[in-house]
Every structure is written in structure tokens, then in C-alpha cells.
Amino acid sequence: MPEVTTPTVTQERESGPRRWQPYHTLWAMLLGGWLFSYADRAITGPVVTWLIDNDHGMLGSASHPHALGGLIGSLFFAGYMLTQFPGGYLGDRFGHRTMLAISLVWAGVATLASGVVTGLIAFVALRVLTGLGEGVFYSNDRSLIAQRTPPAKTSLGMGVAITGLAIGLTIATISAPYLIDWGAEVFGHEDAWRMPFLVLGGATLAFGWATAVYMRRIGGPLKATGSTLRLLGISAVLCAAVMAVYLIADGAGMPSWGVAVLECVLAFVLIGTILARRGARLGAISRNRNVLLLSFAFIAVMWNLWFFSFWSVSIVADAAHSSFQNAALVATFNAGAGILGFPAGGRLSDRAKDRGWGRRPLLIAFTVVQGVLVLVFAAYLQSHEKPSLWVMSVLLFVTSLFFNALQPMAHALLSDVVDAAQRGAAFGLFNLVGEIGAVISPALSGTLFDHYGSWTQAVYIDGALMLVSAVLYVLIREQAPRT
């Protein structure tokens, strides 16, 4: 039987509308969850860049190192994508609180192990396993916020919580050079790359334990045993499938972007099987026109997020011929903008909804502006042999500000167009489809760089995809929220 959780949403008293409320604590804890899980996944990009720059045996000796490095990121998201829908379904059944705690503990253990293993195949497998565990966080986070936050502040709550994404990206990007330098002092130059995974994995594990304690306090015992066993069983099958596709395709000489596409095909075959087995309840979500439009539009969002998150250090370093440390500092302008963008976008979305404008017009406007700014960034890179670090910093910050603001708008709009009992599965399907962008983007972008010797073409593709997503948002029929 599914866990029945009584919503704790209460109206604020008129005498103290700004007092700290229980749902504020929930937002803060989930912000921490986003912070640690995103730091864990984002650290792979800077580490891969360091491995390539230093001709490390794991990647530097490859004939197409950027393509291989991008494929590692893509395979993480293949795992992350595959548990989006099952994670939402398990959350609806065992409780969203339970799945959030499991996700963070899982991520901490897998990230720690990533810093211990030796060999490319073992490292890739652990990155896939990390993705499988982190994949259940998103749908349960969005669902728990919608369940325990006043409806008028749902989008704001989603924006505040997901601000942890930007903080985690910033921490991973800016700390990578220093953690690697520390790793060189402790382990030697050859094993310096291990330190970021050990430090961030340990921090995530500790926060995962704290999250489990908090989730028990706000809703009672967690159904951890049954849900963990179910997730372990699903993940074992999915990890084996992802690695089998990778090894077979790589052995056949398929390009990295082709392997990423195959992983997406695998995802939809497996999810199609789940839909066929679960019947009308989940099938209704997959036939919801608004859910499908939002989901396919979000492919561009996840493409953009993980193109810049994975390769931003390399983009800046290659364009400006700067050092690894300086490139990491500039890249933080892309990551750090979310600290302002996410909550601002959530608040603007709630106000637009309250005034009867709806969330959709604002979402369309922000998406168009962001897409145009990405194209401006691409044109700047193309027209300058050595772009200014200051100009790139400003362009990355402003572009990312609009990009991060539009995300809670889309999340809240999705919450409005589905029944409360199906939110977990709906957010799982939404992020499953959207993660196609995250799976293909790092590998294809790295392949384009190896072919052209420049990131310009990949940036142009990114901007064009964002404008296409704006067209899909136009087709959505916004409606009153359901409870």
C-alpha cells in the first residue's frame, strides 16, 4: 500500500507572515540535498578536464579525449535518467521522504567509491551507479514541496530548494583545482584526482544521515528496507544494461555520441516496459498532453545545464587560453547565477499566477531571452580570437540568471497540470524525458570539439535548442492547479 502522508501545509497568520515556518525548514534541507548531490555529479567535469590537460593515463592518452570524457558524463546521466520514473513511482508508494534520504546516502557512498577504484571501466560503472541513486531525488523533492508548502508559494519553494543546485555547481567548479592540489600533496600527482570525490562523497554521506533523521522527525518512521531493496534490484538491472550497451558499442567502434543515443533508446525501452506493466494509472500520465510538451521542452533545458556545467571550464580555458584555475573561477559565474535566479524565478512565477496571468507567458519569455543570449555568447566566441575573461564572465552570468529562473516556473506549471496523487510519477516522467539532453549533450559536445577544435558549434546548437523549447511551451494549455 502507498504511504499516506497528511500534508502539513498551513496558512500563515496575518500577524506574522514573515515568521519562520516548518515548510521553510523543509526547503532548507532540500536545498542542502541539491547542493551535495549536484556537487557530487558536477565535480566529474573539472576532474575530466584536469585528466585531459595533464595527459593522465585514464583519459589523456585517448585519441579523442574530449569525446571520451564527455561520454563519462553522459553515462552518469544515463543512470540518472533511468531511475527518474521508477523513483517517482517508488516515492508515491513508499513515501517521498524515504526516497530522498536513500538517494543522498546512496550518492555519498557511490561518490566515495569513485575516488577509490582503479581503472576506467570501474570508474565509469560507479559513475553510473551514482546517477542511478541520485535519479530518485528530483521527483520526490518536487512532490514533497508541493505537498507541504502553501499553494501560493509552491513555485517559490521549488526555486529556493533548487538553489542548492547552483551552490553545488559553484562549490564543485571553484574547489576542484584546490582539492586536486591537495590530492597531489597527499596521494601524489598521479592520484591527485581522487581527492575531490573523497571529500565531496564524505560530506554527502554525512548530510544524507542528517536528512534521514530530519525526515523521520517530520513524518514518522521511514519505509527504508523495502524501498531500498526495490531500488537496489532495479539499479542492478539498469546498471548492467547501461554498461553492456557501453562496452558493446565501444567495442564496435561506435562514436561517443552514438553510444549516448543508444543509452537513451535503452531508457525508453525499459520505461515502456514499466508503463505496460503498471497499467492505466501511469499510462494516463504518459498521455497527458501538457506533461509531454513540458517534458520534451525540458530536453533543451537539461542539454544546456549539462553542456555548460560539464564543459564550462574547458570552454573558458580553450577560448581565452587561460589556466585551469582562472577558467574555473570564470566558470563559477555560470554556476553561481542560480543562487539568485532560482528563487527569483519561483517568486515571479507565483506572482504571475496570483495575478491571473499564469505561469506560461513568463516561462516563454525567459526561455526566449536565454536562448538569444546563448547565441550571442556563441557569436562572441566566434568573432574573437582571444575573448575577454570579463566579457565571458558577464555573458555567462546574465545568461545563466535567466536560465535558472525559468526552471522553477516549469516545475510549478507541471505541478499545476497533474493530480496530487500522481505528482511523483509525473515529475519522474518529466525528468526522464528531459534527461535525454543531459545524456547526449556532454558526449556530442566533446565530439564536436575534437572535430572542429572549438566549442563554438556546440554553443550555437545549445542556443537553438532553447528557442525550440520556447515554441513547445507556447502549445501548452495552462489550467487551474489541482489539489
The number of distinct β-strands equals 0
Per DSSP, the total helix count is: 19
Straight-line distance between termini: 21 Å
Task: Please give the radius of gyration in angstroms.
Answer: 21 Å
Written overview of the protein:
Helix content is 80%, strand content 0%. It is mainly α and 483 residues long. The chain is globular, with a radius of gyration of 21 Å. It starts with 21 loop residues before the first helix and ends in a 9-residue tail after the last helix.
How would you summarize the topology of this molecule?
Elements: H1 22-42, H2 44-53, H3 65-82, H4 84-94, H5 96-114, H6 120-134, H7 137-148, H8 154-187, H9 194-219, H10 224-251, H11 256-278, H12 280-286, H13 289-320, H14 324-336, H15 338-354, H16 360-383, H17 389-416, H18 423-452, H19 456-474
Helix pairs in contact: 1-5, 1-7, 1-8, 1-9, 2-3, 2-8, 2-13, 3-6, 3-10, 3-11, 3-18, 4-5, 4-7, 4-10, 4-18, 5-6, 5-7, 5-9, 6-10, 7-8, 7-18, 8-9, 8-14, 8-15, 8-17, 10-11, 11-18, 13-14, 13-17, 13-18, 13-19, 14-17, 15-17, 16-17, 16-19
How is this structure best summarized?
Helix 16 packs antiparallel against helix 19 (456-474). Helices cover 80% and strands 0% of the residues. The chain starts with 21 loop residues before the first helix and ends in a 9-residue tail after the last helix.
What descriptors fit this protein?
483 residues, mainly alpha
